[in-house]
Amino acid sequence: MTVTERQSTWEKKYKFSSPQTNIVLIGMPGAGKSTIGVILAKLTARGFVDTDLLIQRSQRRTLQEIVDEEGAPALRRIEEQLLLGLECSGEVIATGGSAVYSLSALEHLGENGVIVFLDADLPTLQARVGNFRTRGIARSPGQTLADLFAERRQLYSNAADLVVHCSGQSQEALCDAIIAGMASDS
């Protein structure tokens, strides 16, 4: 093992075990990032940040209004700028579903965070999302939830330090899996 590899291993162990490390949740709309995020924050004594809410507050309009007025690319740009400017530690961060399109934003979040992909299957997402057309999702015109799932799933997996399979699990079980996954990597 080289010095660089040892340093990288040590950095990963420290990152996973430090209470100052952010837990960054990524995944499809409907995967449970916001819901799991609040519970996980309580269980790990961290704060909670929902980047969709930060976007809405900073823009003074809903995500759907941004998409309707300026288009999905504008929402992605706004999200990227917000994520690149996010400076916090010891938080659980629920990102918007399109965060995965910005490599620079994910790298920034990963500097002081463990990126956790909440991987839910398509039927679970379809049941949870409700009206896809009014949810404020950054998508191309005519793109279905299935299309978006096919486009994004590998991107989420590639970006993640930890993948947690969500379908058929309770919220508590998912939080336990994230905590256990972080402990096993430390």
Number of helices: 9
What is the CATH fold-level name?
Rossmann fold
Strand order of the largest sheet: 2-3-1-4-5
* Average residue-wise pLDDT: 86
Low-confidence segments, given as residue ranges, are 1-14
| Total beta strand runs | 5
The figure for the number of domains is 1
Largest sheet: 5 strands, parallel
N→C terminal distance: 18 Å
Percent strand equals 5-15%
Label the CATH architecture: 3-Layer(aba) Sandwich
What is the succession of H and E elements? Answer: HEHEHHHEHEHHEH
Which of globular, elongated, flat, extended, rod-shaped describes the shape? globular
- Helix/sheet category: alpha/beta
> How many whole angstroms does the radius of gyration measure?
16 Å
CATH superfamily heading: P-loop containing nucleotide triphosphate hydrolases
Q: Name the helicity range.
A: 55-70%
CATH class: Alpha Beta
Provide an overview of this structure.
The chain is α/β, with parallel strands linked by helices and 186 residues long. It has a single domain (21-184), classed as Rossmann fold (3-Layer(aba) Sandwich). The protein is 56% helix and 13% strand. It is built from nine helices and five strands. The protein has helices at residues 3-17, 33-44, 51-59, 63-70, 72-85, 103-111, 122-129, 145-159, 171-184; strands at residues 22-26, 47-50, 91-94, 113-119, 162-165. A five-stranded parallel β-sheet has the order 2-3-1-4-5, sandwiched between helices. The longest helix has 15 residues, at 3-17. The protein is globular, with a radius of gyration of 16 Å. 34% of the residues are buried. The model is unreliable at 1-14 (pLDDT under 50).
